[in-house]
Amino acid sequence: MENFFTYISKPIDKEDLQLWIEGNNICFEKFNLFNDFVMSLVNLIYDTYLGNDEDRTTNIKLNDEDKSNHFEWCWGKVIDDFKKEETYFSRQGEHYDLLKNFINETFYNQDIQAVKYSLNKFFTEIFDLDGIHTMSDLDLLKAIYKSLDKNLENNNLLN
What we know:
Elements (H helix, E strand, L loop, with lengths): L1 H8 L4 H10 L4 H21 L15 H21 L9 H15 L4 H4 L2 H8 L8 H16 L9
Helix pairs in contact: 3-4, 3-7, 4-5, 5-8
């Protein structure tokens, strides 16, 4: 239990973060691109979602299929927007599954509004390499980075 608590709560020092970056072959151009991709997706979801929000005058009950369709539409729009910038991501793959599952749990299926609308802040902090990180944060960041990197179709442009 102590190891788990350390894993999710103990900040790692800057030297260890630098070693982690080097050890995982993190390319800063791709890192920034992937940050833009994730933030574009989250912001589009926030801006276009019409379901179950206490703060909105439109409070439509959406079923699981509606939520899935909303994610699909947002995902496709972000993929298409990046294509306009000549950056091509696969539509399906590990990156899609990872982000869809994460967003389902933390947004679509979340009843606590403060948690539901913390994704923007969460991703801003996790992609800030000057900020404080735990090993748990870095494992999620690595999973996002590697899955997007694997599904970046014009990957040779940023190497």
